[in-house]
Design goal:
With about 375 residues, the chain is an alpha/beta fold. The chain has eleven helices and 28 strands. α3 links the parallel β4 (about 50-55) and β5.
Length: about 375
């Protein structure tokens, strides 16, 4: 197998869930008790023997740097290769007026100096809004066998106009060669191949594409590169049939988290795949304490929690405290959240370090969960 470098975009989809990305990148959004979104992209790469990984950042990346650290927990603390954080505006081509790259192509332009120094044969690009456990070696083998310039991981599914407008849809012939692309269409409905935002590209080809984009002031990989070159470039789709969860909104985040509780097969497809574990930052917290008065059902609970009340159908991150007489249902409580005695929560997403005082009742709905901002006391 030829060598490959990984590139992860940490900020591209921040606007999809502004509630959770006001003070962090989408890459560092907490998920499933103890993980962050970027853990899936990093683990997919490491499990596929990609040990040279670049993470492109734009803003709000303090928590991301704290989470990744030296990369040791992903076996990326290496003298040669390893993980590198690429901050914004490190080349003359960056858009300094906004300070934010809204597309992959803009992000690649702003870090072209680093891109131009990649010597591996292939580059694997990954966003952080898709949750999946995928073998990237299969995509690389397919990409090489077809002689493609770029290969896009896709999955066929039925779409409503609301879902389609948050995705890129590819159409291809019987051999998998892309014949058309719709980027975030406003009126598409029906069956189509949704892009999983995982792309394999030939290094020299991608370097030339970005250089050309700089010269012509292109900003969109799909519209300015793929759509214009379908006729003579070799673009392919790799059809993936495993589980993937796309987080296009705050409601998607809540629904996917609830599915994680209710569906053990989903948990197996994400976390129990042979030889493909999902790595994250190790904290070595004490075990969770359940008092005699606690009543816990159908929940995912991290270590370091103290539970004295009722918890049902919830996800609790590290260090959460549930007071005596408190009732928490259908909710997501992030790290170090405190729910005082006799409080009642239903369909609530509480960000880190929030406090819900005793006797308070908060309720959202499954289609519109109630969100508590980081560090707030109610």
């Amino acid at each position: 197998m030829s060598s490959a470098t990984g590139i992860i975009f940490s900020n591209i989809h921040d606007k999809n869930i502004p509630e959770l990305t006001k003070l962090r990148t989408i890459a560092s959004v907490p998920f499933g008790c103890r993980y962050r979104f970027i853990d899936f992209a990093l683990s997919n790469m490491v499990n596929s023997d990609i040990y040279n990984v670049n993470v492109i950042t734009q803003h709000n990346y303090h928590s991301l740097m704290d989470h990744i650290g030296s990369g040791k927990d992903w076996d990326l603390a290496r003298r040669s290769g390893g993980i590198k954080i690429l901050p914004p505006n490190i080349t003359a081509y960056a858009d300094r007026t906004s300070g934010v790259s809204n597309t992959r192509l803009e992000a690649l332009k702003s870090t072209y100096h680093s891109l131009s120094r990649i010597t591996d044969d292939y580059i694997v690009l990954s966003d952080c809004d898709v949750i999946c456990n995928i073998d990237l070696n299969d995509i690389l083998k397919y990409h090489i066998s077809t002689g493609a310039d770029m290969t896009f991981a896709v999955q066929n599914m039925e779409m409503t106009p609301e879902r389609a407008r948050n995705n890129t849809i590819f159409f291809s012939d019987d051999e998998g060669k892309i014949t058309d692309v719709l980027a975030y269409p406003r009126n598409f409905e029906g069956s189509g191949d949704i892009c999983l935002n995982i792309i394999v590209a030939n290094t020299e080809y991608l370097q030339q594409v970005v250089l050309d984009a700089i010269a012509h002031n292109y900003s969109s990989l799909n519209r300015d590169i793929i759509a214009k070159n379908i006729g003579h470039a070799n673009y392919r789709v790799y059809k993936y049939d495993g589980f993937f969860g796309c987080v296009s909104s705050f409601e998607d985040y809540f629904a996917l988290s609830m599915d994680l509780i209710k569906n053990p097969e989903l948990r197996d497809e994400l976390f129990n795949v042979k030889n493909r574990p999902v790595y994250t930052k190790v904290r070595n917290s004490v075990p969770t304490y359940y008092s005699a008065s606690s009543d816990v059902r159908d929940s995912l609970i991290a270590d370091g929690c103290h539970i004295y009340g009722t918890v049902e159908n919830c996800i609790l991150f590290r260090g959460v405290k549930i007071g005596r007489g408190a009732v928490v249902k259908n909710s997501i409580l992030m790290q170090d959240t405190i729910v005082d005695e006799n409080a009642s929560l239903n369909c609530v997403v509480a960000d880190k370090n929030t406090v819900i005082r005793g006797g308070v009742t908060l309720s959202g709905a499954e289609s519109a969960p109630y969100y508590i901002v980081k560090g707030k006391m109610i």
